[in-house]
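Design job #97: recover the sequence.
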């Protein structure tokens, strides 16, 4: 038996999905690679027995032409594999494309696998207009299952396509990859003791110079303008001098589409605010990311849209107090009574920070940790994915 994962092979999510969901139940795994892999990734997949389908040419081409060529190449290669080894048992598309490639996908899906699953992630729907999303109609007809893990995704999908696909819709979550790493590093002590351990205990080095004596505040979780770094920083400029001296802002820009010009704008806003800050402008492995999460006291989330990101879940698991905007509604958190603070406008942030510094705002971090693990660990979510296998 063999199965296919159409995804970015360089992505952590492709690796996590394979080891936690697809192997060993879904047989030999074929995986697409849209760009050359690092030697470490090549060795990783070789060790896992994953067969890579390379879709890159090695030469620069017009963007649209490159997408068309990759789509036609994957169609040709998949049809060859099916001809040689028979249809795939499962075919999973990790992140549904709304580019011109969406027009070619139906011919790839048709008769290629027994079980065909399209997996939507936040940016597939939440940040695209219907003029692009409608390109997926041909794909949706060919799929056996359409996975919409969160309430936000389902609402957006229904607004675009109505309820004609309801019998295909599933609600399987992705696990949060950093939970195990956080568990390995996190002690049973309270949040302040965790911070002391992080700086002087099990991981003595602190390459970011994040101070243990201040309230460390995470602002967004990538470099995208959608994180609204500048409005948040400008709002925090309204804190008193004493409050500013008691907090430290942390921005992680290891990924995201923030341009160099936008990043400079954010840096200027930070300097103007006279609040201490640290910018981490590199990708972090799971262990190092876990270390960072354990250093954070407060997570200010102000993104324009979000589909229950792993960063939010892992921050709660690590003990951060989440300040979440009311325009992002997590029904999944309500179902589990996850404890966080909601705000209606970014202008409210200085008052909330002031209350936090005075100890007037607290959350049940122990309850959050328990519920996040019960609901969003890979072990917890696997059952839902295996139900697709059993069908």
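Job complete. Output follows.
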């Amino acid at each position: 038996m063999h199965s296919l994962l159409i995804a970015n092979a360089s992505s952590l999510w492709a690796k996590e999905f394979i080891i936690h969901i697809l192997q060993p139940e879904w047989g030999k795994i074929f995986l697409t690679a849209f760009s050359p892999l690092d030697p470490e990734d090549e060795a990783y997949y070789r060790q896992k027995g994953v067969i890579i389908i390379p879709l890159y040419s090695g030469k620069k081409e017009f963007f649209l032409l490159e997408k068309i060529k990759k789509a036609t190449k994957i169609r040709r290669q998949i049809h060859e594999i099916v001809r040689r080894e028979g249809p795939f048992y499962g075919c999973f598309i990790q992140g549904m494309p709304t580019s011109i490639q969406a027009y070619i996908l139906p011919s790839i899906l048709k008769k290629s696998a027994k079980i065909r699953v399209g997996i939507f992630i936040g940016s597939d729907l939440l940040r695209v207009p219907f003029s692009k999303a409608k390109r997926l109609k041909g794909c949706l007809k060919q799929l056996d299952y359409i996975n919409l893990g969160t309430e936000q995704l389902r609402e957006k999908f229904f607004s675009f396509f109505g309820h004609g696909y309801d019998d295909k819709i599933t609600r399987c979550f992705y696990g949060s990859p950093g939970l195990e790493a956080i568990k390995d590093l996190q002690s049973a002590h309270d949040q302040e003791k965790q911070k002391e351990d992080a700086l002087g205990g099990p991981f003595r080095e602190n390459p970011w110079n994040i101070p243990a004596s201040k309230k460390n505040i995470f602002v967004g979780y990538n470099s995208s303008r959608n994180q609204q770094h500048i409005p948040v920083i400008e709002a925090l400029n309204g804190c008193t001098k004493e409050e500013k001296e008691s907090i430290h802002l942390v921005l992680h820009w290891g990924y995201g589409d923030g341009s160099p010009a936008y990043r400079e704008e954010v840096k200027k806003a930070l300097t103007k605010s006279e609040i201490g800050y640290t910018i981490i402008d590199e990708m972090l492995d799971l262990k190092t990311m876990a270390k960072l999460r354990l250093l954070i006291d407060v997570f200010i989330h102000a993104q324009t849209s979000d589909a229950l990101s792993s960063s939010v879940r892992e921050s709660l698991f690590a003990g951060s107090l989440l300040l979440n905007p009311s325009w992002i509604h997590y029904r999944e958190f309500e179902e589990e009574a996850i404890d966080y603070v909601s705000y209606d406008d970014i202008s409210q942030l200085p008052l909330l920070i002031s209350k936090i510094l005075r100890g007037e705002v607290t959350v049940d971090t122990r309850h959050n940790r328990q519920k996040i693990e019960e609901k969003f660990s890979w072990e917890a979510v696997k059952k839902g994915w295996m139900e697709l296998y059993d069908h």
